[in-house]
Structure formats: C-alpha cells, structure tokens
Write a structure and sequence with these properties.
heterodimer, A: 97 residues, mainly alpha, Arc Repressor Mutant, subunit A, 72% helix, 0% strand, B: 185 residues, Rna Polymerase Sigma Factor, Chain: A, 2 domains
C-alpha cells in the first residue's frame, strides 16, 4: 500500500523532495551506485536532513565496508594465474580438452 | 581507451583486456565454486577460452564478456561432473558449495575489530544463494548486472537476494548488539 502511495505521489509531484518510505525503497541501490541521477539527488538530499534515514544509510555503509575488508584474496593463486596468462599469450596454449 | 582487438593482434588484446581482470575473475570463481582449487582451474579455463575468442571480441565491456565466458565454462564443468543438475542455473553456481573460503584476511580492524569478527559468523549462517551475491557485489564490488552475468540469473534476482542477505546480516549483527536494529514502518 505504502509503495503505491509513494509511486502515485512521485508521479503527481515529480520534483517533490523524497520521503522516508521512498528512500527506504531505494537505499540499497543508492549505496551500491545503481540509481539514476535524479534518484541519487533525491536520496542524497533526504539523507542530509533525516536523522533516521541517515543512520540507516550509515549502518549499511558500515556493513558494506566490513564486507569489502573481509574479501582480500590470497595473492598466490592470482600470481599463478598471471603467469598462466603470460604463457597463454606467448602461444603456450594447451590443446582444447 | 579500448582498442579494437583485431587491429593489434590477439596477444596485445589479451594483455589489454583480459589480464587486468584476472583478480576479479578469481574472486568471482571463488564465490561460485567455494573451492580455491576449483576456482583456479575455472579461471585457467576462462583464460584459455578468452584467448581463443579474443579475435571476435569487440573490445567493449571486457569484464562482462569475461564473466559470461567464466559462467559458460562453469556450466560445462558442472555438466561434465553432474549432468542431472542442469535444469536450475543456481545449481551450476551454487551446488558445489561445500567448503568455506579460509582465505579472508581482514586488512584492518573496524569498531575495534568487533564488527569484522561478528560478521564472519553472520556470513557463515547465510544460505549459499545469499552469500554469493554478497560476495560478488559487496566483497568484490561487481555491479548488479555483472553479478547477474556471473550467476546466470536476472538482475532483479540479484537485487532481491542482496536485499534479503543484507537484512539477515544486519539482523544477526543487531542481535549481537553490533549494529542498530532495523526500524519498523
């Protein structure tokens, strides 16, 4: 129901400031850099003035940052794969199996 | 600036478009196979296929091109091992999940290391489908479309799984008192 209200409101007032339910729907995509320029502007403006949504964004930013830190890959396999790629590029290509 | 691969020969195109993506390819392969050895084999297979196909590659979006190759290579590997699993694309990219990635090396502490420590336990509790999208988008910083290409699922599926995965992680960490609880309404 709230989603419908948000959609109708946006259609009637395309340039209205974003409201909390609208921001909640877009927040994940916003933090992932997957929104269009208009949504980016609306959400960013709302996060500046809304403490609750701002805290929500901060929480997910912390979570994303921790996840990114958790994923440092081991260097050895990547080094081996680079050597393999060098051999492939040098024409040392195994037969298709 | 991308170069038309045919203009400079396959070796130069391979070095320019493929080699810089090896790190991403390995991490994606690790997310899909959950096995360092299988991941390395899968990337080798992908590199060979890319080398053979570089002549017909137009030089645009090399990562998307390579992720599609990687996924097709994985489909073939699973088909060879388990022909009965081919109906569901998730089986191709998820069923092999048996071992945990023991390679995670957090670079720095966060909130005195508490969040990182609790996060690992929260990740371990995630179902594999959710864990994969988190690995691809949050850990390895792939776009939704790139993650969808790697997993062979629609982009909407990536988005919904990601949202549910983060909610679960957040709830787990909120129960531990590490993050604020989700708001209602």
């Amino acid at each position: 129901m709230m989603a419908l209200v948000v959609r109708v409101r946006r259609r009637v007032r395309p340039d209205a400031p974003a409201i909390c339910p609208e921001v909640a729907r877009s927040l994940q995509r916003y933090l992932d850099g997957e929104v269009d320029a208009k949504t980016l502007r609306l959400v960013a403006a709302h996060l500046e003035i809304c403490r609750r949504c701002g805290l929500e964004a901060q929480t997910y930013r912390a979570l994303k940052a921790a996840l990114r830190r958790s994923g440092a890959p081991p260097a050895e396999p990547i080094e081996r794969l680079r050597s393999f790629a060098d051999r492939v590029a040098a024409g040392d290509v195994p037969d298709e199996g | 600036m991308s170069t038309q691969p045919g203009a400079r020969g396959p070796d130069a195109a391979f070095q320019e478009h493929v080699v810089p993506e090896i790190g991403v390819l390995y991490r994606v392969a690790l997310s899909i196979t959950r096995s360092p050895a299988d991941a390395e084999d899968l990337v080798q297979d992908t590199l060979l296929r890319a080398y053979r196909g570089i002549g017909s590659f137009d030089g645009r979006h090399p990562r998307a091109w390579l992720l599609t190759i990687l996924r097709n290579a994985q489909v073939n590997r699973v088909r060879r091992r388990r022909p009965d699993l081919m109906d569901d694309p998730d089986e191709v990219t998820g069923r092999a999940a048996t071992t945990e990635d023991e390679s995670a090396q957090p670079e720095e502490a966060f909130m005195a290391g508490v969040l990182d420590e609790h996060l690992r336990a929260a990740l371990d509790e995630l179902p594999i489908k959710f864990r994969q999208v988190v690995d691809l988008v949050d850990v390895n910083e792939l776009s939704y479309q790139e993650a969808a290409d790697a997993l062979g699922v629609p982009m909407g599926t990536v988005m919904s799984r990601l949202s549910r995965a983060r909610r679960r992680l957040r709830d787990h960490l909120a129960r531990d008192g590490i993050l604020p609880r989700r708001r209602r309404g």
